[in-house]
Design brief:
mainly beta, seven-stranded mixed sheet, four-stranded antiparallel sheet, 61% strand, elongated
Amino acid sequence: QVQLVESGGGSVQAGGSLRLSCVASGSNFNIKSMGWHRQTPRKQRELVADLATGGSTQYAEAVKGRFTISGDNAKNTVYLQMSSLKPEDTAVYYCRVRVAEVVLGGLEYDNWGQGTQVTVSS
């Protein structure tokens, strides 16, 4: 049983910065990876950044060099530092955590946060 709480979204001018946070809580789970996705009315939910347990990261080409994903394993928290924001970054950002549920024999599945709105104006 995992619950995700996202925060940090808001409205900024182009070129500004925001920091998103996502905290995973619950029990009897092991985190396999954490990441951020975003969704606009015209597109399906797309990967923005991913952080594997071993520390490797993956970024969408559109955000590479501008966004940084990081995590705090002790706090089950993942962050997305966004800088040099562009209007095209406007979207609802969702935290995604892949977990292995101990009580289900290690069954892996994704948990999604409720989403936090990021709006970038020019």
